[in-house]
Amino acid sequence: MKSLLMIPGPTPCPDRVLRALSQPMINHRGPEYMALQRELIAGLKRVFRTEHDVLIFPASGTGGLEAAVANTLSPGDPVLAVTVGAFGERFAEIAEAFGADVRRLAFDWGQAADPGRVGEALAERPARSLLLTHNETSTGILNDLPALARVGREHGALVLVDSISGMIAADLQADAWDLDVVVAGSQKAWMIPPGLTFVSIRPRAWEAHQQARMARFYFDFTRMKRSMERDQTPYTPALPQLFGLRESLAMLQEEGLEASFRRHARLAGAVRRGAAALGLPLFADPAHASPALTAVGAPAGIDLRELRRRLREQHGVVIAGGQGAYQDRLFRIGHLGYVAESDIVATLAALERSLIGMGWGAEPGAAVAAAERALAEAEADA
Ligand SMILES: Cc1ncc(COP(=O)(O)O)c(C=O)c1O
What we know:
The protein is 44% helix and 15% strand. The chain has 13 helices and 14 strands. It is globular, with a radius of gyration of 21 Å. Pyridoxal-5'-phosphate binds at residues 9, 60-62, 87, 133, 137, 162, 164-165, 185, 194.
């Protein structure tokens, strides 16, 4: 059956990227590789909106989060981890695993972090670092990153940002927003397979790095930067993913970042309107709803595992379940990366048919009609 992958990562890869992945290997110590890496770093800087460093590590996003922590902190350093879901919690756990003195400021799942409360927490107990999640993939919340980062800076904390599922779907400006370290992951809106993490580092983070005593080797910023300055890497790079990255950067350049943000917002709006037309409860605070994915609460009396099975087996549409305590209490539709309006319409049609098949009282066509109206309105506003 033809299948449509609508989970919040890994996301579908464009044909252009898939073809690039299967290119023959090259000598990673030769001139061809050196030119490729130069091109990629220049492209990454454009997407991160930074004139400072962006490093590439062959690892999943979690590796990038570990790099951010281990390169800027020492054991015992006070850290404030702002969590709004499962991935904020992971960031906190990493800092704990490396011996930081972590204090959590946890907001309810489905809510965004409140910058005022973050400021209060920092005033109460100063922190060397503030850990922030840009887009929380477990709940479908987009935090107000510029406001949160500003509060961190005002209190003298180094701002470390997980934007693994945020960047490209949502605006992020590493320099203008004064974000000390930002971590991204290739399998999200970047449209390439899992396996690369990109980390931007601004001067204050480099200063912190000089003092930071946590153990590191594979993810050592200095080792990677010194190598990259010679257009090299300290170990064998993940060549296929880098070939894919070249294509995805070209596609982003063609679409334009602003257009990408608008597309993601439009698709997210259509999903939310479609789900609401089916009478489904949206999980995230609408004022902070993510452009990358939508989390939907369980409709009364509907078994979500069965719903997802029907979508997958009868319609070829793959969506994600919830995470942690919400595993069977919500489902998540990813709409980041290489996703078009037609994918949204197909997903909502399949969702609607599956739900009606399970006895949910919805009007056939209601979700698709609502989504199409939302898309048309967004087009008219543009
Ligand atoms: C916000 C966020 N942080 C961290 C991660 C972990 O990334 P990875 O699974 O690539 O290690 C993810 C992955 O879904 C994520 O969405």
